[in-house]
Structures are given as C-alpha cells and as structure tokens.
Amino acid sequence: MNLSWVEIIRIEVKLRIWVVIEPSRDQGQQKVDNDVRSERTVAGMKARLEQGGWTFPPALGYMKGKDSSGGKTIVPDPMRAPLITRAFEMFSTGLHSKQEVLDVITRLGLTTKSGRRLSGQSFSQLLRKPIYVGVLEVPAWGVRQPSNAIALVGRDVFDKVQTLLTGKRPTVMPRLRRHPDFPLRHFVRCGRCDHPLTASWSKGRTDRYAYYRCQNRSCKAVNVRREVMERLFADFLAQLQPRPEYLRLFGEIIVDVWKQKMAIAAAEHEAAQRHLNALAERKQLLVEAFVYKRLIDSATYQQQLDKLKEEIALAEINERDARIELLDVHAAVGFGEFVLLNAPRLWAQLCLEQKQRLQQAIFPRGVQFEDGVYRTAETSMVFFELEAKQAEKEGLVALTGIEPVFQP
Predict the structure, then answer these.
(1) Most CB contacts within 10 A, which of 8, 38, 164, 326?
(2) Which residues sit opposite 387 in a β-bridge?
(3) Distance between CA atoms of residues 338 and 336, nearest Å
(4) Is residue 178 part of a domain?
(5) Taking 80 as the threshold, does the pLDDT of residue 129 lie above it?
(6) What integer is the mean pLDDT of 139-156?
(7) What are the distances in angstroms from CA 152 to CA 59, 74, 85, 144, 149?
(8) Are residues 72 and 133 in the same domain?
(9) Which residues are within 8 A (CB) of 313 and not within 5 positions of it... i.e. 6 or more apart?
C-alpha cells in the first residue's frame, strides 16, 4: 500500500497523541477504581465494626484469633493481657503515678510487639483505649459500640482511670521530688516568704553536710541541717497524733456512716437491677412479636429495638454506678489507726516515695517552717472530723478535742 507523506504524517501524529493521552486516561481510571475500592473497603470495615468485630491491627494485649463461629476477631494475648489488666488496676487506685506503673509492668515483662520497652506516651495512650473495656470506638467514623472481644479491664476500673487522667478525681499521689536524701524538699515551705524549700549537699573542709534552705534569694530565712529539720518534722508528727480513745470513736463513726451508705447503695442497686430486668423482658416480648407472632412490621420492629437498646445501655450504666464496692471497712479503719498512731516511727522507716505519700496524706496543703517551728493550715480529714464531732459526742464521753501528745 502506497501512502503519501501527508497520510504518513497524520498517522504519526495520531500515534503520538495516543501515546500521550491514553496512559493519562488509564491513570485517571485507575484513580477512580482505587477510590471505589477504598470506599468499599471502608464500608466493609464499618460493617464489621458495627457487628462487634475488630478490623484494625490488634491493640497491645490482644492477638488475632477467631470467634465461636469461625469469624476473625481478637483474643487476649496470654503473655501481655494480664500485665495490661494489672496496669489499669494499679493506676486506678490513685496511689501510683503513670511512670511508676509503667516501671512495674515493664519489670514484669510487658513490651511492645517488637519487643521494645513501652514509651511513656504510648502507655498514656494505652490507658485511654476503650477496647480494653470491650468497647469499639472509631470517632472518625462515628462508631462506638460493644465489641465481641473479651474485655481485659472492668468498667469500674476503666472509669476510675479515665477520671484520674482527666483530673476529675483527686489522687493521693504527690508530685514526687526524686532525691532520696531529701524527702521534705519542696514539701515544706518557708514560713516567712512561703517559697518551697530546696535542699542540697554542702562540702566542708573534711566532710559533706546536707541542708534544707529557702530558695528565695531575697529571703533565705531557712538554712537548717537535714538531721535537725527531719527530727523536728518527726516531733511535729508526734504532736499531731490523736489520742487512741478519740481515734477509736472516729472509727466507730466511720463504720456507722459506712453501714448507712451501704444500705442506701443496696436499695439503689436493687432498683437499678429491677429496671434493667424489666427492659430485658420488654426486648424479649418485642422479638417474639416480630419473629414468632408477626404482629409488627420490620420498620416498627427496628425502631422499637433501637429505642430499647438505648434505654438498656443507659440502665446498665446506672446499674453499674449503683453497684456496691466490696470493702472490709473494719480492716481499713484498723490500718488507718495504726498509721496515724505510729506516724513518726513509720515516717522514719519508710522509703522516699512512701514518706512523701504519708506527708501528703496527713498534710494535704504541705507545711511551713520558720525559726525551728513547723505549722500547717490544714491537716488530714481525720483530725478535722474528730474536732467536728466533739460537740456531738461530748454527752457520751468527756472530749476536749485533739490534744497533742508531747514527748518528754
């Protein structure tokens, strides 16, 4: 076939246009296809989540597994799950900082899936994950509902942890100043300028000496040897001890109040449980009316079922809040009496963290020191409550308040 130059040029131009344009069309089509596949994947993941299944990589403490019907799910990791549970339980007490809890569970063997130590930031995020309490939550997709995976943490413990993390619940854990030689550092404040005291070692000609001092350069009213400062603090603790007979009376008052609250809590829990049972019966009747008796249509059934599910979820929360926490109140009172009656001796024998916890428990607002004398604006509630009960109980025993027990 003989082609003219014009026809040959036209064919060449067409070929070049095809080479340039067609791939771009293919790329555009590929993008559309990818977007469609992505949307389908997301839709499938959402549907899986709505059925209680976990569609992401397992959280620390879980591993891939299958449910009773053979479907994919997550199951507790036998090595890490118990440590996750222990971490939540330790932190929920309010007696330990996040770093302390992390140190403990790290020593017990908790690591990331790659075998590395868990960072502080990762541990903070772990404590906030609702999957550990059996809740699937993906805020970006508006998903929040129960999971079919086994929860590692009880709801009560998880809720306590969240309130501690948000600061809505007070903690008895002080902000520790980690210097084992100076437990009173930053806890005691200068009585003249109210600045926290600092502490350090000073080098003499032949030895080193430890001092507590006011860190306000324009004040410097306090500059006391460590042994003197801490001996005077132990004496101050001894002066604040309530007499044993008053402490026993306070223990009796605590037990009486506890019994009253237990009775109220038991009644509230019983009422919440009855309401929850009634909702469960209504749900069963609804199912029977739709499935077996065919008395209602599908739309009405689904509408009523969704409404009942919301009511049941709210009722479960109320029932859980009303649940009675088991506590050996007599043992707790006995331990409190022992600590308060032996505070000076215990303080001298405790480690740094325990000393600072005891200080914080007895003096929630700290203490001041000036001219060899300690004073405080507020002691623990036990002393305040004992004084408040004086007028109420003086008809039974001759109370004269909390008198310091001075050591000769």
Answers:
(1) 164
(2) none
(3) 5
(4) no
(5) yes
(6) 78
(7) 11, 12, 6, 18, 9
(8) yes
(9) none
Same domain, 280 and 372: no
Same domain for 230 and 146: no
Most confident option among 23-27, 330-334, 384-388:
330-334
Q: How far apart are CA 276 and CA 334, in angstroms?
A: 38
250 closest CA partner among 398, 378, 388, 405? 388
**Model confidence band, residue 83 (pLDDT cutoffs 50, 70, 90):** very high
Of 152, 145, 26, give the one whose Cα is nearest residue 79. Answer: 152
Domain end marker among 298, 326, 354: 326
Residue with tokens 């998880």: 158
Pairing mode, strands 188-190 and 143-146: unpaired
Residues 328, 348: Cα–Cα separation, whole Å: 28
Can you give the residue range of the structural domain that contains 287?
261-326
Please tell me the total count of domains within the chain. 3
Q: What angle (nearest 5°) sits at the alpha carbon of residue 75, between those of residues 53 and 112?
A: 110
pLDDT value at 19 more than 70? no
Interaxial angle between packed helices 381-388 and 244-291, expressed in degrees from 0 to 180 and rounded to the nearest 10: 100
Residues 6+ apart with CB under 8 A from 391: none
* pLDDT of the residue at 127: 94
Tokens of 100: 């302390």
Per-residue three-class SS string for the chain: CCCCHHHHHHHHHHHHHHHHHHHHHHHHHHHHHHHHHHHHHHHHHHHHHHCCCCCCCCCCCEEEEECCCCCEEEEECCCCHHHHHHHHHHHHCCCCCHHHHHHHHHHCCCCCCCCCCCCHHHHHHHCCCHHHHCEEEEHHHCEEEECCCCCCCCHHHHHHHHHHHHCCCCCCCCCCCCCCCCCCCCCEEECCCCCEEEEEEEECCCCEEEEEEECCCCCCCCEEEHHHHHHHHHHHHHHCCCCHHHHHHHHHHHHHHHHHHHHHHHHHHHHHHHHHHHHHHHHHHHHHHHHCCCCCCHHHHHHHHHHHHHHHHHHHHHHHHCCCCCCCHHHHHHHHHHHHHCHHHHHHHCCHHHHHHHHHHHCCCCEEEECCEEECCCCCHHHHHHHHCHHHHCCCCCCCCCCCCCCC
**What pTM did the predictor assign?**
0.43
CA 80, 85, 91, 93 dihedral sign is: negative
Give the side-chain half-sphere CA count within 13 A for 299: 0
